[in-house]
């Protein structure tokens, strides 16, 4: 097929996200509006390039970019940066918003480690719109969990310390709670329910205790415990922040674990 037509935009997005990361670190130190403007411009250009890369790949392959870890991580980066862009104008959250490109850069850097060839001939198990629903909703959920993770880490770093410009702890706790509140139902519907329907159609069984299915269930339980502790018990602070961090660590392991643990998901995502 020749060079992948989307890769030029993929690399442009990665370099823009990396540039935004450098500018964000500078902004964290100097807190100049002009530097924040540079962060926003680089993040936005990177996001647009990320979008174009996904669109071109979808047209070239004839299917949504949801098969294989390269496509998954590229879509994941796009959803992460979108989540942080939605925080950009929220008062008092400028320091968390500027680091959205950092998370996007990490996702694209991980994507670059996997084969990027465009596959127009999918195996039968991947030729299902339920797969597209399953992956798309799971990616959006995991992007929301990324926002919660960054807010939780900032909360834990700033706890009991007087860092200049660090967002208020209560606001960070609220961002974590709301992000998980968005991500949890998306994960429930997409990763679990839609995944079970797809598994039934692809493999003849909705649940087979595949390693990725098992780790996804563990992720669901961790965030369910977080929401129970936060909403029912009224807990806040470092305890639930650590639950958010734990849930995200398990989320990343779930995304990448199929390459280590094998199973039915080892050929794709």
Structure description:
By secondary structure, this protein is an all-alpha fold. The protein has 2 domains: 1-115, Four Helix Bundle (Hemerythrin (Met), subunit A) (Up-down Bundle), CATH 1.20.120; 125-269. The protein has 10 helices and no strands.
Could you give a short account of the major beta sheet?
Answer: none
DSSP strand content? under 5%
Radius of gyration: 19 Å
Structural domain count? 2
* Helix segment tally: 10
Order of helices and strands: HHHHHHHHHH
> How much is the average pLDDT?
87
How many β strands by DSSP?
0
- Bin the helical content: over 70%
Dominant shape: flat
Span between N and C termini? 23 Å
Low-pLDDT runs: none
The assigned structural class equals: mainly alpha
Task: Set out the fold topology.
Elements: H1 7-30, H2 33-61, H3 68-85, H4 94-97, H5 100-111, H6 129-158, H7 169-203, H8 211-232, H9 238-256, H10 258-261
Helix pairs in contact: 1-2, 1-5, 2-3, 3-5, 3-6, 6-7, 6-9, 7-8, 8-9
Relevant terms:
mainly alpha, Four Helix Bundle (Hemerythrin (Met), subunit A), 2 domains, 269 residues
Short account of what is shown:
The chain has 269 residues and is mainly α. 73% of the residues lie in helices and 0% in strands. α6 packs antiparallel against α7 and α6 packs antiparallel against α9.
